[in-house]
Amino acid sequence: MSEGKIKIQLYRSPIGTPEKHKKIVRALGLRKLNSVVERPDTPAFRGMVAKVPHLLKVVE
Questions:
Q1: Residue 19 zone, left/alpha/beta (φ > 0; ψ -120 to 50; rest)
Q2: Which of 4, 11, 12, 53 could be a cystine partner for 41, CB 3.0 to 4.6 Å?
Q3: Which CATH number characterizes residue 44's domain?
């Protein structure tokens, strides 16, 4: 897998979700709604995104 970058956007609020989901969102560096962060395209970050697909979008 290439070491590119992925852009991740928080498009739904983690309020009312389990604490684990909130921790994943915070660990990705997302704080505010509609914020976008750029992270390395590694299996670890892809796995974090896969845990909360109802809150995040991968921006192309």
A1: alpha
A2: 4
A3: 3.30.1390.20
Where in 3-55 does DSSP place strands (E)?
5-10, 36-40
| Residue range of the domain that includes 17 | 5-59
pTM beyond 0.85: the answer is yes
Strand segments (E) across the chain: 5-10, 36-40, 56-59
Residue pLDDT tens, the chain, 60 long: 456 999 999 999 999 999 999 999 999 999 999 999 999 999 999 999 999 999 999 997
Alpha carbon 57 to its chain centroid, in Å, reads: 7
